[in-house]
Amino acid sequence: MNILAIGDIVTSNGCNFLRDKLPKLKATKYIDIVIANGENSADGNGITPFSAKHIFSSGVDVITTGNHTFRRKEIYEFLDKYPGIIRPANFPSVAPGKGYYIYDKGNIQICIINIMGLVYMDCLACPFETIDSILEIDEVKRCKIKILDFHAEATAEKKALGFYLDGRVSAIFGTHTHVQTSDETILPNKTGYITDVGMTGAIESVLGVKPESSIKKMKDKLPVRFEFAKGPCEMDCILFNIDESTGYTKSIERLRII
Fold first, then answer.
1. Contact 45/207 with Cβ under 8 angstroms?
2. Low-confidence ranges of the chain (pLDDT < 70)
3. SS3 for 226?
4. Active-site residue list
5. Please, are residues 79 and 72 in contact by the beta-carbon 8 Å criterion?
6. What is the pLDDT of residue 228?
7. Tens digits of per-residue pLDDT, 40-75?
8. Residue 225: what pLDDT?
9. Distance CA 218, CA 169 (A)
10. For residue 81, which phi and psi values (nearest 5 degrees)?
11. Could you give all domains of the chain from N- to C-terminal order, each with its CATH number?
């Protein structure tokens, strides 16, 4: 089974690029399931029902999110209504939505899980304990294939969770930093792993933001209203080929579509 994970989609510019490039990629790579992080897909930050529907209609099967999930209140009801969009599982239980989703392919079920890191991030429940609890849920246990989006800042935290889950999940891809890493690998116990899958957004930008906005913020140390960059885009992604009988990753391919 070929499972594609797409890096953080940034604004309508990234959404439109996704719609333009994803159909052909799905066909040429024989992709069975597409997972994309959409927490920055709305213009101005966060995710809205409009941007989520755009992502789904462009060919994405499951949307994961992160620390910007709840920036826009209009997404709250949507999270409860559409199980195919998930938020980090280690948010408090009162938060809208759910931290995992079981995607039914008919002959096989795939569990997609979303967890957020703690280092340089919000103070949430321990990601290690949270994933342990999810993996003990009966419906999750029944899924041979389990995919994790670990939305985290620190590379050390991502690598640690990768080794902690090696052999217990099929694949782990990191999101949040918007910079694609070159460390894609199959860990010793056959879990596919990459520290960060990257971004879907403007190439000439600082993580999707206009360079002059980021420079002003970092240089002057004063509040700045970030303006998101336009222009040519990239779509960073990772392709996992997973054995349906074992749930282990057989191969992993890093992609950058421009």
1. no
2. none
3. coil
4. 68
5. no
6. 86
7. 999 988 999 999 999 999 999 999 999 999 999 999
8. 83
9. 39
10. -85, -35
11. 2-257 (3.60.21.10)
